[in-house]
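Internal ticket #5521
Category: modeling
Description: The requester needs a full-assembly model to guide mutagenesis choices. All entity lines are attached below as received. Residue total reported by intake: 352.
Assigned to: D.W.
Attached entities:
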Amino acid sequence: MKVDLRILRFDPERDGTPHWESYELEAGPMDRVLDLLHAVKNGPDGTLTFRRSCGHGICGSDAMMINGRNRLACKARVDQIGRRISVAPLPGLPVVKDLVVDMDGFFAKYRGVRPFLINEAEEPERERRQSPEQRARYDDTTKCILCGACTSSCPSFWANPGYVGPAAIVNAHRFIFDSRDEAGDERLEILSDKDGVWRCRTIFNCVDACPRGINITRAILEVSSAIVERVS
Amino acid sequence: MLLRYRGSEGMLAWAFHRISGVAIWLFVVVHVVDIYLVGGDPKAYDTILKVYASLPGRIGETLLGAALLYHALNGLRIITMDFWPALTVYHRQLWYASWIVFLAVGLPGAFLILKPAFGL
């Protein structure tokens, strides 16, 4: 079938502002947007720039705005999104070139919540054991692949780029509720900042955008509740 | 970006919440002015009351009532999820439920506000 693909292009060395370019391509229903982007890059325009790595929804490299919604290009199939497809870079992040955005700020916020196990106790001889219930407490937030689809879909983030964003909160949640971790209070302190969890307006764009199906708003509200309980 | 991004029910609920909030705030400003006129300029106050009682004024009051009702119901929806985060799974259903209450309360309310303008 014929597919009408529009891509928001931007070359900082040539363009003042981003502009749309259209391509008519032959595609099958099971083709993914990533396949279409490759078809453009390997065909009519080799200068098209985008990130990709695994191509199977694991690495999170190819998050972009497809038909007005953030998704992974490697998971968005033609039969799901239709023959008229528009592709733009993730909103709210500085564009480097074409579909590549600057994620430095995103990862700085991620690092800011100390997303790793902190336990100063003497190292045990065997693993730190955990019951199935304790593991289930944070199971949902272990799935994050740091694609940035959630944070860049959030109107609170668009309005205030200082907002730590859903992805960083999800990754803080993963350790705050881990029974083996000892730095939960420290993370809750970081997230109780004015640019922390309180900027969430329960809009749910993050939940819709997450390619791993994480209930991000629930995680944010659980962290908010933990902050309130800690203070009271 | 707000118009370019295709959010679903959650984004619509938030957008309506903001729009209704701004509308309510604008009315509060107008209301402060008209209450001030009771003492400052009683004749102007009577004129404003006539405007409120006219058909356009009553349509405005109906829209104000709609904004208040939506803002209150969606606010309760948000508070519910704040207290019970597990209910976020049902945020769409909660929004639709708030619309059902909105119509159940809003339609009779609109009728009561508008009927004097039609001599009923």
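Resolution: model delivered.
Comment from assignee: DSSP finds four helices and no strands in chain B.
Ticket closed.
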